[in-house]
Amino acid sequence: MSPRLFSLLSVLVPGFLIHSCEATELSTVEDFDLDSYFSARWYVHEQAVTPYTPSSLNFCSFADYAIRDSPTFWGHTIDNFNYAEDAEGNVQSGNDCVYQDPNELGKLTVMPCFLPRFLGGPYWVVAYDEEKGYAMVSGGQPRIPTASGCRNPTRVYNGSGLWIFTRSPTRDEDLIDEVKVIGTSLGLDTTSSVLSPVLHENCNY
Q1: DSSP code for 50
Q2: What is the predicted pLDDT for the residue at 102?
Q3: Which positions of the chain have pLDDT values less than 70?
Q4: Helix (H) or strand (E) holding 37
Q5: Cα–Cα nearest to 79, from 102, 113, 117
Q6: What is the DSSP secondary structure assignment for residue 57, as one 8-state letter?
Q7: Is the dihedral of CA 133, 58, 65, 151 positive or negative?
Q8: Strands (DSSP E) along 30-148, which ranges?
Q9: Within 13 Å of residue 162, how many CA atoms lie on the same side as its CB?
Q10: Which of 129, 31, 29, 111 has the alpha carbon at shortest distance from 73?
Q11: CA–CA separation, 205 vs 198, rounded Å?
Q12: Under a CB-based contact definition with an 8 Å cutoff, are residues 160 and 151 in contact?
């Protein structure tokens, strides 16, 4: 559905957006290649506000991943290290674990490593191109309607968030815009009311 038609229906048909956000499940990447996706660092260039990614940490953010040789006690199969800075260069970082659903490869779950996966949050890879070096990740099925699509909540830990990653810390506006267009085509709100830029300047990493 085109964004123009989506917006028109939201005006003409009360409740259309709410129905649309929940009626069609957000699609994830088909034939998702786990080894390729987690082969190198991802730099965050756009992200939505969540309790763990406040706008004050929109600096120098990246994520590293490593596939484990054997699962943890809870069955987690991937180690995750997240890093961000604030405007003064203060670092916030932490380690998490990731679980991949063997039946839906693009749907991952992220949680602190001491927690079982049913307490984790969704990490859905909805767009990915290794050759171009980008990925878009949604914190699960967006359910909040907006005039520009659907979004996730901002004040809950699980089921929140939207991110645009690239392989390079250097911002590529054309590439980021390309990913936003893909997100819009999936029904996501990728406007500046949801996504904010992450700056990679004078970083300490």
Answers
A1: B
A2: 86
A3: 1-19
A4: helix 34-37
A5: 113
A6: G
A7: negative
A8: 42-47, 59-67, 78-85, 91-100, 107-111, 121-129, 134-138, 144-146
A9: 29
A10: 111
A11: 15
A12: no
Predicted confidence at residue 24, as pLDDT, reads 78
- Count of residues for the chain? 205
pLDDT, residue 125, reads 98
CA separation for the pair 146, 193 (Å, rounded): 10
- DSSP H helix total and E strand total for the chain: 4, 11
Q: Is the dihedral of CA 172, 167, 86, 50 positive or negative?
A: positive
Give the distance from CA 180 to its chain's centroid.
Answer: 12
Main-chain phi, psi angles of 154, to 5 degrees: -110, -10
CB neighbours (10 Å) of residue 82? 19
pLDDT of residue 198: 98
Let me know: does 124 contact 136? Beta carbons within 8 Å: no
Percent above pLDDT 90 for the chain: 83
Identify the CA nearest to 47 among candidates 180, 186, 182. 180
Cβ(17)–Cβ(142) below 8 Å: no
* 95 strand-pairing partners: 81
Over the stretch 2-39, which tens digit does the pLDDT of each residue have? 545 444 444 444 444 444 787 778 999 999 999 999 99
The pLDDT assigned to 164 comes to 98
